[in-house]
Amino acid sequence: MTAEPSRACQPPRRRLRLGALLAALTAAFILLCCGGGTAAFFLTNLGNEQKNLAGEELSCEQDHHVKVTGDMPRLAKYGPTQMRNAAVIIKVGQEMTVPPRGWVIAVATAMQESALRNLSNSTVAGSGRFSNEGVGADHDSVGLFQQRASWGSVPQRMSPDYAARRFYEKLLKVDGWERLPLTLAAQRVQISAYPDAYAKHEDIASQIVNALTRGGAQTVQIAGKAVCDRASAETIAASGWTAPIRGGVGSGFRTPSRPQHNGVDIAAPKGTTPIHAAATGRVLVARCDPDHRSRLDCDVDGYPGKGGCGWFVDILHAGGYISRYCHMVAKPLVVPGQEVRAGEVIGRVGSSGNSSGPHLHFEVHRDGDRSSRGATDPVPFMRQRGAPLDQSS
């Protein structure tokens, strides 16, 4: 069991909006009020994409082959033509036997570079003669991935199939690309002037992949095969998420008996069970949470009614999501402002704070809102990302 971190640290509700740099910076400093961090924390690479209208409730199936003809699923921001371009990107990846994580990276990259439109260029002679969905003017860049002249001829780069194939060829040459944060993997291929721009598209790119492939972003590579809904701890789903620990969910989210329980509890041995970051992100808070009597005594086991999260960590992820990890046995292994990767160990299970025994209290919040207003049920949230919380060891 747990209590919400003390209200003195609760920021007013703010929504992180794409492109609103000043608002994002303001929100960042407010979010950091309790972490002791004062370093500049730019959230433009972790901002919200437009809300999804497809893919949230799809189950993961074994057949992930994509179709590029016929009706296309739609998202609020992406119409049939853009979704068809995404389908072409995925299809090329499948033909090259690229794992699903690569499909997510490629789709997110094209979202950033062209909004999934095959763009000609007003400064590139002849590019407008080829099928396109708009006109750009960025140097000599054309196509879905805005590839420059060194990537191929104008007809080649204006072909979505060719452009996707060239992207994957370079991605596969990046050492350890499957475990890199999406923005690093994409940047090592694209070498963009805005290297942090890709991360904000990861969640929507995963939803697009799921919608087009019946759950491809919910898979994890096990023995060379894409397996549905098994990402846990050190194994990362194609969506970029993983369950922080293995185990069964005990006390659930806002149950009738505990309507203010804003997360779920997963029992695990004290002191020996590592807690893993559920996704790549930036640490907002890592500290001891005061109990109801304003005591900072997290180095001893807590008890029901004590109040506070004990030793806890909050991490901000792409899409404006925040994950929270409570009741650690000792001071967290991370500090505010630190960048962490999915699966990185951030602490160990304990029973500090408002706790009845060793367990991880895990929360997920939306819209960059650390308060109870932003909390969402982490069970369906994590299941939709291929990292269900009800996994045994």
Characterize the structure shown.
The chain has 393 residues and is α+β, with helices and mostly antiparallel strands. The chain has helices at 21-31, 80-95, 100-114, 154-157, 160-171, 182-190, 202-213, 378-383; strands at 120-121, 135-136, 219-222, 225-228, 264-267, 274-276, 281-288, 311-317, 322-328, 339-340, 345-348, 359-365, 375-376. Strands 5, 7, 8, 9, 10, 12 and 13 form a seven-stranded antiparallel beta sheet that branches. Strands 1-2 form a two-stranded parallel ribbon. The chain has a two-stranded antiparallel sheet with strand order 3-4. A hairpin with a 4-residue loop joins strand 8 and strand 9 (322-328). Helix 2 crosses helix 5 (160-171). The longest helix is centred in the first third of the chain and has 16 residues, at 80-95. The chain starts with 20 loop residues before the first helix and ends in a 10-residue tail after the last helix.
Major sheet: size, sense and barrel closure? Answer: 7 strands, antiparallel
Q: Give Rg in angstroms.
A: 22 Å
Beta-strand share of residues: 5-15%
The SSE string, one letter per element, is HHHEEHHHHEEEEEEEEEEEH
Count the DSSP helices: 8
Which structural class should the secondary elements be placed in? alpha+beta
The beta-strand count equals 13
User: Which whole number gives the mean pLDDT?
Assistant: 87
Q: What proportion of the residues is helical, as a percent range?
A: 10-25%
The N- and C-terminal alpha carbons lie at a distance of 22 Å
Bulk shape? elongated
Low-confidence stretches: 6-55
